[in-house]
Description:
Layout: H1 4-13, E1 18-21, H2 25-28, H3 31-36, E2 41-44, H4 48-60, E3 65-70, H5 71-76, H6 78-87, E4 93-98, H7 101-105, H8 113-123, E5 128-131, H9 138-150, E6 155-160
Parallel strand pairs: 1-2, 1-3, 3-4, 4-6, 5-6
Amino acid sequence: MLSGCAVTAAFEACGITHVVWIPDSLLGTWEVNLQQSKVLRLVRACREGEAIAIAGGLLLGGAKPIVMIQCTGLFEAGDALRNIVYDLGLPLLMLVGVRNLLAYEAGQTTDNCPVFAEEIVRAWKLPSVLLDPNRACERDLTETLRDWRRASQAGVVLIAE
Length: 161
């Protein structure tokens, strides 16, 4: 299960130095564990595009950040994402909560956010993986992030909410 402890341990194991985020829904429940880390530094942003820009600056300065936002924020932050990943060629890592995906798959919501989240990531031609926090484990997250870090490439972990 991807709990706050598991996510924190995965980030630490991958050499992540900063978590640039807007704590929301499931992601926000991990805050206590992230704050307790002696390795990770939490940086709050006001908007998702700002979170991506901050992470870009950290990457340019030699840090190893990850951006944590919800899918609606990913929709809003497209231009910042384009600039950081394609114009600057930076290996931006993101963890994006896909709001209501589990309820959508069960036919329990008409929220269209889950319909577009994966499609948006594909449109940006970014490597991605979708993890169900009830089935995935720390190792799944760690291996994915390590692979992208080793390849010095951008990537998006989508977390079903």
